[in-house]
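From the thread on structure requests for the teaching lab: each student submitted one protein with a one-line request. Submission from student K.M.:

"Model Mu-like prophage tail protein gpP from Raoultella terrigena, tokens only."
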Amino acid sequence: MSDQDIVSLNVGGKIIEGWDSVRVTRSIERFPSDFSLGLMDYYPGTSEKQLVQEGQSGEVRIGSDLVLTGYIDSWEPAITRRAP
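Reply posted by the TA:
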């Protein structure tokens, strides 16, 4: 994957990358735009826990392109049987 394809979330002054799943919805026929990003509970390669709070402002970028700005509506921690 090239740098121009990397999806990142900037929230609380931190840039989070390395998503397991990504969905970004933008359409002239659909309002509001939204996104869903799935990842592990810890930053890849560290013991630092992901800290995202509902109500925080955030920016979603694909490469260097800003595609969405807004607020975190929900943060849903989950455990599944599926291996990463």
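TA comment: The two ends are 18 Å apart (CA to CA). The chain has one domain: 3-71.
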